[in-house]
Amino acid sequence: MARLESLIGLVNRIQRACTALGDHGGEGMSLWEALPSVAVVGGQSSGKSSVLESVVGRDFLPRGSGIVTRRPLVLQLHRLEEGRSEYAEFLHAPRKKFTDFASVRKEISDETDRITGKTKHISNIPIHLSIYSPNVVNLTLIDLPGLTKVAVEGQPDSIVEDIENMVRSYVEKPNCIILAISPANQDIATSDAIKLAREVDPSGERTFGVMTKLDLMDKGTNALDVIEGRAYRLQHPWVGIVNRSQADINKNVDMMAARRKEQEYFENSPDYGHLAHRMGSEYLAKLLSKHLETVIRQRIPSIIALINKTISELDAELDRIGRPVGVDSGAQLYTILELCRAFDRVFKEHLDGGRPGGDRIYKVFDHQLPAALKKLPFDRHLSIRNVQKVVSEADGYQPHLIAPEQGYRRLIDGSIVYFKGPAEASVDAVMFYWSTLVHFVLKELVRKSIAETEELKRFPTLTSDIAAACTEALERFRDESRKTVTRLVEMESSYLTVEFFRKLNMEGDRHPNQTGPNADKNRKEPPAPNMDSYGDNYLRRIASNVNSYIMMVCETLRNSIPKAVVHCQVREAKRSLLNHFYAQIGRQEKERLGAMLDEDPALMEKRTLIAKRLELYKSARDEIDSVAWK
């Protein structure tokens, strides 16, 4: 079996570590709240402070009227061997030992004012005080502000509710042992401590009742109905306490002498003599110490489970937000490259269909480009009047003999010029479903990929650099795509498909051999050289032939432009979006690499806090493993 000192000392060490980290309960399930503790609860003037001083055997608490305890005081008692000098230590002043307990009282007041100011406000941030003495048992008590019913001058109107909420936040926890202090010279039915204890612990399993000021009751009366459990029954026995009188306090009567006087009172009392063996502050301290040991032993398995669960959660959270980056340039470069690869994987998933967005590029060519080609003004360009004008100007002063070849070429060239607009536009083709640019689609996918790369969120500078590098690369890919698409259009005007016109002529000249009077009528005659004599049918035929050829070119470009755009932009974005960036960072100095990995201060603070909590929980686990608690 574990020594009592080991278990209570274990909880004391973990509590101090929790407080140093800022974990003092009241904010959901925490390690502090999982640790068993004894909370001292009582109304103002109930004798609460006197009980604590009797347990310690020293005057050390501030005294006065109104609310004196304005912050929780975690009082950890450590028993020393007989003959050793007693002293006190505060967690907020770890390297300073207090041997004068008047100085301890002053330090409590000063530390309270440091948080609450010189006002009468309260704070839930605890003060940790450890007292080492041969006159104490190993025990931890939490002294809470006294419950009150009325706000006095200098206190906020909400002080009554604020104090009750603070006290309740401690005593409602299932691991809290309630030390409910009630004065014997008041009706137990009006006890603030018992009323609150009954609300949070209706079965009385966690509550220890303490009756103070038994010596101040009216002559001929006693508190046996309460102490013997008839007036209000608890699972644990009531303990009677006789505090020092105000005259004794004024005379600075020694606390050890007061303990002896208290024991003599019970032994000689006609009312309480039969209960003297379980009355007094010394008995109370031993009773609480033994019970606290038992509760700690019972709770350790659940505490271990909480610690292991929290360690796993904190480790996972650190992995999510990222571990600290090494300080040498090699580690920094490796981290940057890994982050770039993580972004690149997300970007490729968008293009390849693993994530949404890549389908928008297809819609440019399936919807927007064909629609743009259909809107080209070929009808106006191939109107009869314009055809006549172009053919006539192409012939110059000497009309064509057989077919207006130069006129055909000029009409075709004039039509192909129209392709350059939508062809180049397809590189930037509006296509957010129906109107977003391909180039802008890629930029949008870069933006989404950066936002979805969790690893990048901790490095805003690197994120900005990657975004800039991607934008620059996409601009280069777009320029190359424009050039390629423009070449495709220019190639169509550089060399016409002669076979197309040969087939037209062959179809026009293909007629059966006819005889008879109508044979000459059905045979086509060569056109007359005088353009003014050309009829509309002849000009319509030229326009129709040119239009058919342009439709063939249109179908060719409709198939080849998407290939060029995908080859120059999408394919290159998949293959080499960050290649130029990789080459640049490989030449960067250590300082620049470090600047790129400059993190968000809020994230750094969060990681530091998580690391500290993780260290706390691992330390607590090691502490528990070092104690034979079973």
Output the keywords.
alpha/beta; 630 residues; 8% strand
Word description of this protein:
The protein has about 625 residues and is of the alpha/beta class. About 55% of the residues lie in helices and about 10% in strands. The chain has 23 helices and 9 strands. The chain has a 9-stranded mixed sheet, sandwiched between helices. Helix 1 crosses helix 10 and helix 15 runs parallel beside helix 20. The chain starts with a helix and ends in a 5-residue tail after the last helix.
Summarize the structure.
By secondary structure, the chain is of the alpha/beta class. It has helices spanning 4-21, 31-34, 48-56, 101-116, 159-171, 192-200, 224-227, 246-250, 255-268, 281-321, 329-352, 359-374, 378-381, 384-395, 405-427, 438-452, 460-494, 498-509, 519-522, 536-576, 579-585, 590-596, 601-625, and strands at 37-42, 73-79, 87-90, 93-98, 127-133, 139-143, 176-183, 207-212, 239-240.
Topology:
Layout (H helix, E strand, L loop, with lengths): L3 H18 L9 H4 L2 E6 L5 H9 L16 E7 L7 E4 L2 E6 L2 H16 L10 E7 L5 E5 L15 H13 L4 E8 L8 H9 L6 E6 L11 H4 L11 E2 L5 H5 L4 H14 L12 H41 L7 H24 L6 H16 L3 H4 L2 H12 L9 H23 L10 H15 L7 H35 L3 H12 L9 H4 L13 H41 L2 H7 L4 H7 L4 H25 L5
Parallel strand pairs: 1-6, 1-7, 2-5, 7-8, 8-9
Antiparallel strand pairs: 2-6, 3-4, 3-5
Our count of helices gives: 23
End-to-end separation in angstroms reads 6 Å
Q: Overall pLDDT, averaged?
A: 82
Tally of strands: 9
Strand order of the largest sheet: 4-3-5-2-6-1-7-8-9
Going by helix content, strand content and strand pairing, the class is: alpha/beta
Shape: rod-shaped
Low-confidence stretches: 426-436, 511-533
Main β-sheet, in a few words? 9 strands, mixed
Strand fraction band? 5-15%
Helicity level: 55-70%
Radius of gyration: 46 Å
